[in-house]
Automatic annotation (TrEMBL):
Protein name: Glycosyltransferase family 87 protein
Organism taxonomic ancestry: Bacteria, Bacillati, Actinomycetota, Actinomycetes, Streptosporangiales
A Pfam family hit: GT87
InterPro entries (UniProt xref): GT87, UCP010361
Keywords: Cell membrane, Membrane, Transferase, Transmembrane, Transmembrane helix
UniProt topology in membrane: Multi-pass membrane protein
Compartments where found: Cell membrane
Length: 433
């Protein structure tokens, strides 16, 4: 007989409180900017407190109009999928209702957004703990209070997608395919990166032959995505497509390895079309993940494949913003909860967080070389992230090829987030063919 719900929630209370502490620390980190530093770029960068939330209130006309329907130039439309756009709209309505002064509205918009993101962090941590299971519940502390998470938490709205992604993983693990699909569709309509989890589910479905749950989940995801996107596709086409046009046309940006290749003038890698090169590189990595999934001696865990797919997406992307660490932390920990490579990666992320703002100080229009750092120093931070994530990927691949090395499975667990994959028999493998 299962214990009452109230008793089942007790073990999660400390994690929720620690996650709330992490959310509070993330707010404190940005207090120098909230007190007026946002109006001075030098102050913003030297205090390491930049956020997109405050400036976009003005730059995307949220102080006067609604996202996607705004009568503004195309490049001033909100460049996010519709769930985030509507989150921004609702919070801007509240800010306008509470404050008359425009600057006060923007500060209120930031504060209200931070409350939502803090709740999203707490929810994401609790959901991650539930996914990890009783034996590894405390692994969620990496998501709650790791330095990189605290520093990056309120740069953008990524924590909303993080909570939806963890909810999707928990629903799938509890074999609630419709709910998992709905949450996946909403996550993709919030930030595009959860699309990579479709490939992970597909590969493990191919190996196990559990097609019905997969198709139910994909159908539910497509339905949820259409429900939230359809009205904007019909009534605000130009505003709706801004995100997709921006993603396609965006050039090489901060954090990407492609920026290094361009800066150093590498042949082909630094001179070719980055959209094509990035897609080819991602395709090669995904093909390798597919072969690994179908050829491994034992079926990989879902979190392992999700982590590898998401890491491949980030490493080959045209831009790698500091807040992207929020995407990867929960999946990295679920894939391989070993503190040494995780700590090394977190150090690299903290160094990158400092390096990007110091580098921007030395770039036009500020050109404050007395305060900032140069190209070579900045690119040590870029490659620090790539190398440390590559190390973690290598360990996950090792664990897949040698399941006895998998820390999670050493506890007698097959796949705590696998749902129908948990203890499933193989129906297709490359080695059997």
């Amino acid at each position: 007989m299962r214990p009452p719900l109230v008793w089942r929630t007790v073990p999660y209370l400390p994690l929720g409180l620690i996650a709330a502490l992490g959310a509070t620390l993330a707010y404190v980190v940005r207090l120098p900017c909230r007190a007026g530093g946002w109006n001075d770029q030098v102050s913003t960068y030297t205090n390491f407190c930049y956020t997109d939330i405050y400036p976009l209130y003005f730059d995307r006309a949220l102080d006067t109009q609604n996202p996607y329907f705004a009568q503004v130039p195309f490049d001033k439309q909100v460049e996010y999928p519709v769930v985030l756009g509507e989150v921004m709209q609702v919070i801007s309505w509240i800010a306008r209702w509470l404050e008359i002064d425009k600057v006060a509205q923007a500060v209120r918009f930031y504060d209200l957004t931070v409350i939502l993101l803090g709740i999203s962090l707490v929810a994401g941590v609790l959901l991650m703990a539930a996914v990890a299971g009783p034996a590894r519940r405390w692994d969620a502390l990496w998501y709650a209070v790791s330095p990189a998470v605290v520093l990056a938490a309120y740069i953008n709205w990524d924590l909303v997608a993080g909570a939806l992604s963890m909810g999707m993983l928990l629903a799938w693990g509890r074999r609630r395919q419709v709910l998992a699909g709905v949450l996946l569709g909403l996550a993709i309509a919030t930030k595009f990166y959860p699309l990579m989890f479709v490939g992970a589910l597909f590969l493990l479905t191919w190996r196990t032959g559990r097609w019905r749950p997969f198709l139910i989940t994909m159908g539910s995801a497509a339905g949820a995505w259409l429900v939230v996107n359809g009205p904007f596709m019909i009534f605000a086409w130009e505003g709706w497509r801004r995100f997709y046009v921006f993603s396609q046309e965006r050039g090489v940006d901060w954090g990407s390895a492609w920026l290094f290749f361009q800066n150093k003038g590498w042949p082909i890698l630094g001179e070719g079309d980055v959209s094509t090169l990035g897609m080819v590189a991602l395709g090669v990595l995904c093909l390798g993940i597919a072969v690994l999934t179908l050829a491994a001696p034992r079926r990989p865990r879902l979190a392992q494949i999700c982590f590898l797919a998401l890491a491949a997406f980030m490493m080959t992307n045209k831009v790698w913003s500091p807040q992207f660490v929020l995407w990867l932390v929960p999946f990295a920990v679920l894939a391989r909860p070993n503190w040494k490579p995780l700590a090394l990666w977190q150090l690299a992320e903290v160094w990158y967080f400092a390096a990007i703002w110091l580098y921007l100080l030395s770039q036009p229009p500020l050109s404050r070389n007395d305060l900032g750092i140069g190209d070579d120093t900045y690119f040590t931070a870029v490659w620090g992230r790539i190398i440390t994530i590559g190390i973690m990927m290598a360990f996950v691949v090792r664990d897949i090829l040698r399941p006895d090395k998998d820390v999670v499975r050493q506890a007698g667990i097959d796949d705590q987030a696998g749902g129908v994959f948990d203890d499933a028999r193989d129906r297709f493998t490359l080695t059997s063919r």
